[in-house]
């Protein structure tokens, strides 16, 4: 049947079909996270509000200033990034693992949709949730800080989006490898949480004694948190507490995205964790 | 004048699972365009594995699959576009409702939303599920879930519809309704491949039947000649007194349905006298006899039983 049709036409119609597939997946993922909002949206907002109260108000008032800004203003960018990281990861890992578990992932696997569309569709869900909760957390912070001013909106937005993309792919790979529900929690508990807490959410790594400062530089989350904080506080934070070079941070995040995206695509193409 | 390519052309297909199970040991299968094809075989024969490979859910170990002339290895998406699948087990999201499930499947196949909505309505109505369109899938009855999977498989109007035990656990009325529906789909030009454990289902629907056992095709022919091939008749003998353990009927497939009822298979070219001779040697008296209608069922047993004995010995 394809003899009569020119290859270019087929390519074109396949591209269009894949775009419809992507649109379908995005709608599905966003519908899902809004449908289960008591699980997806409420808990992270409550947790970060508690952080604001405890670390920002109660302890923060004793800490005083950090790098020229009140302590609470220093941790706001860190807590937003923590939400971005956790929510992008956990949205994708739980959505995709439950699709695997209930086997409705087969609906995607038997369809002609390109594997990259499956990955991008799931990422879109994770990124949407991350941006949604990141924004809410930022808005909530206005109840606790005197002034919320953002040095560069494009910069903060792009750091947050890239970070959300990266951890969405991480959640996707986790879901591919997971065999049971318990496996879904291993990476967040043993890798993500420690790296985030040690990644400069609550302090600047410049304040750490050696060798801890140097060791911290191997923690990728340091670059994301610092880049985001730079985007918000750059003009007010004293330069010695800006932990990173913004260009290096961007490059590092992009390299990680490319590496993880290729890994996920390779696994999908091989059917790892999906096909017997 | 080019003959239309086969709906399915499988050559030397093999599958060894990760744990070493040899599920398929090099099978060949051809399904003509427009065919209604039955794939039969006992539990664990390799039916679902074969279907899994055709639908890209299982990685094959060796061999080739072509669907309407498209090679699975060369253009997987092209093959996928041709096929609709009704899997053996429920595999939809239990928390979504039929409308979402079917719409999404249409979207995955690249059908734009407007058309997808029209098609979804059409097939949900056809399956009698339109009233349940916003009921969560897990709240549907077993039969409704099966029909939901059929609607989902039809929404992109595939040229080849594959159903893996579509009527398992479905009551007789609904089963017949499903048969009528599948016949209609087939008459409209869709090639249908079906696996089933209900032989009457295969007899009623399929024009061509292949029997698979332990990863090998043991029979592959059209239904008529399959039935004609059936040269074995089953007789039911009523015995005067309870039969002894050893009936002395070596070489005949037989069984006691109760103490005084004996069922025995006798090839058409063998004399009945032989059986009566053997029985009278054991002092067994036959009071009456009738023959059981021959159906695919017996053939099935005959084709598959010898393999079982083989397995028992090894
Ligand atoms: N994922 C798997 N891993 C290992 N072995 C498997 C897997 N799936 C199936 N098998 C084995 O492969 C063989 C063929 O299984 P398959 O599911 O294809 O049989 P089937 O003909 O569909 O049987 P049924 O009528 O019970 O559905 C069986 O021995 C089965 O145990
Ligand atoms: Mg099966």
What would you note in describing this structure?
The complex is a heterodimer of chains A (276) and B (314). Chain A has eleven helices and two strands, in the order αααββαααααααα. By secondary structure, chain A is mainly α. Chain A has one domain (2-270). In chain A, strands 1-2 form a two-stranded antiparallel sheet. In chain A, β1 and β2 (69-70) form a beta hairpin. In chain A, α4 packs parallel to α7 (153-177), α6 (115-141) packs across α7 and α10 (220-233) packs across α11. Chain A is elongated. Chain A starts with 6 loop residues before the first helix and ends in a 6-residue tail after the last helix. In chain B, α3 (98-108) crosses α4 (113-126), α3 runs parallel beside α5 and α4 packs across α5 (142-154). With 314 residues, chain B is α/β, with parallel strands linked by helices. Chain B is built from ten helices and 14 strands. In chain B, α6 links the parallel β7 (160-164) and β8 (191-195). Chain B has helices at residues 47-54, 76-82, 98-108, 113-126, 142-154, 172-187, 199-205, 223-229, 272-281, 296-313; strands spanning 8-16, 22-31, 36-40, 62-67, 70-71, 83-86, 160-164, 191-195, 208-213, 216-222, 232-239, 254-258, 261-267, 286-292. Chain B has a six-stranded mixed sheet, sandwiched between helices. Chain B is elongated. Classes of the chains: A mainly alpha (276), B alpha/beta (314). The interface between A and B is medium-sized, with 32 and 38 residues. Adenosine-5'-triphosphate binds next to α1 of chain B. Magnesium ion is lined by residues 47-48, 88, 164 of chain B.
| Total of DSSP H or I helical runs spanning 4+ residues of chain A | 11
Radius of gyration of chain A: 20 Å
Give the low-confidence spans of chain B.
310-314
The total count of strands of chain B amounts to 14
Largest sheet of chain B: 6 strands, mixed
- Which molecules other than protein and nucleic acid are bound? adenosine-5'-triphosphate, magnesium ion
Q: Given this structure, which CATH class of the largest domain in chain B is correct?
A: Alpha Beta
In terms of DSSP E residues, the strand content of chain B is 25-35%
Pair with the biggest interface: A-B, 32 and 38 residues
Mean pLDDT of chain A: 90
Provide mean pLDDT of chain B, rounded: 88
Coarse morphology of chain A: elongated
Q: Would you identify the CATH architecture of the largest domain in chain B? A: 3-Layer(aba) Sandwich
Tally of individual domains of chain B: 2
SSE class of chain A: mainly alpha
Termini gap of chain B: 52 Å
Tally the helices of chain B. Answer: 10
Helix content of chain B: 25-40%
């Amino acid at each position: 049947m394809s003899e009569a049709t020119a290859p270019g036409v087929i390519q074109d119609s396949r591209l269009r079909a894949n775009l419809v597939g992507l649109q379908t997946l995005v709608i599905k993922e966003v519908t899902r996270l809004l449908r289960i909002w008591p699980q997806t949206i409420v808990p992270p907002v409550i947790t970060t509000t508690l952080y604001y109260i405890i670390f920002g108000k109660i302890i923060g008032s004793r800490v005083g200033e950090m790098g020229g800004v009140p302590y609470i203003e220093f941790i706001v960018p860190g807590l937003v990034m923590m939400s971005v990281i956790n929510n992008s990861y956990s949205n994708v890992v739980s959505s995709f693992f439950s699709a695997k578990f209930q086997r409705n992932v087969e609906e995607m696997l038997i369809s002609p949709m390109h594997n990259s569309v499956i990955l991008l569709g799931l990422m879109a869900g994770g990124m949407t949730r991350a941006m949604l909760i990141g924004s809410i957390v930022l808005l909530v912070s206005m109840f606790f800080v005197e002034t919320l001013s953002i040095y560069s909106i494009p910069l903060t937005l792009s750091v947050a989006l890239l970070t959300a993309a990266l951890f969405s792919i991480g959640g996707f790979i986790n879901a591919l490898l997971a065999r049971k529900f318990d496996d879904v929690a291993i990476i967040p508990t043993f890798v993500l949480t420690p790296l985030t807490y040690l990644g400069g959410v609550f302090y600047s790594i410049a304040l750490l004694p050696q060798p801890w400062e140097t060791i911290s530089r191997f923690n990728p989350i340091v670059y994301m948190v610092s880049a985001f904080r730079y985007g918000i506080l750059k003009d007010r934070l004293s330069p010695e507490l800006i932990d990173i070079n913004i260009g290096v941070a961007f490059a590092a995040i992009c390299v990680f995205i490319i590496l993880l995206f290729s890994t996920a695509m390779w696994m999908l193409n091989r059917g790892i964790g999906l096909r017997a | 004048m080019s003959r239309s390519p086969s709906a399915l052309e499988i050559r030397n297909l093999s599958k060894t699972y990760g744990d070493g199970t040899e599920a398929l040991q090099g099978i060949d299968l051809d399904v003509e365009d427009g065919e209604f094809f039955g794939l039969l075989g006992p539990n664990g024969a390799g039916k679902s594995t074969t279907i899994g490979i055709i639908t890209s859910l299982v990685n094959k170990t060796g061999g080739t699959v072509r669907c309407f002339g498209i090679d699975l290895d060369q253009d997987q998406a092209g093959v996928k576009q041709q096929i609709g699948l009704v899997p053996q087990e429920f595999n939809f999201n239990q928390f979504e409702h039929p409308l979402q499930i079917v719409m999404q499947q249409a979207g995955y196949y690249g059908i734009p939303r407007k058309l997808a909505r029209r098609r979804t309505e059409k097939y949900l109505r056809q399956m009698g599920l339109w009233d349940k369109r916003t009921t969560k899938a897990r709240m549907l009855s077993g039969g409704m879930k099966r029909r939901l999977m059929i609607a989902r498989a039809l929404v992109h109007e595939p040229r080849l519809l594959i159903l893996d035990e579509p009527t398992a656990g479905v009551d007789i009325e609904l089963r017949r309704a499903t048969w009528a529906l599948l016949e209609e789909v087939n008459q409209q030009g869709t090639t249908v491949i079906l696996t089933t454990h209900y032989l009457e289902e295969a007899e009623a629907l399929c024009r061509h039947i292949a029997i698979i056992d332990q990863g090998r095709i043991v029979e592959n022919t059209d239904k008529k000649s399959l039935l004609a091939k059936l040269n074995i008749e089953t007789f039911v003998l009523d015995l005067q007194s309870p039969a002894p353990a050893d009936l002395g009927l070596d070489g005949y497939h037989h069984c006691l349905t109760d103490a005084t009822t004996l069922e025995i298979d006798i090839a058409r070219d063998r004399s009945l006298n032989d059986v009566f001779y053997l029985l009278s040697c054991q002092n067994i008296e036959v009071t009456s006899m009738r023959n059981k209608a021959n159906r695919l069922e017996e053939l099935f047993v005959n084709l598959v039983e010898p393999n079982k004995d083989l397995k028992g010995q090894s």
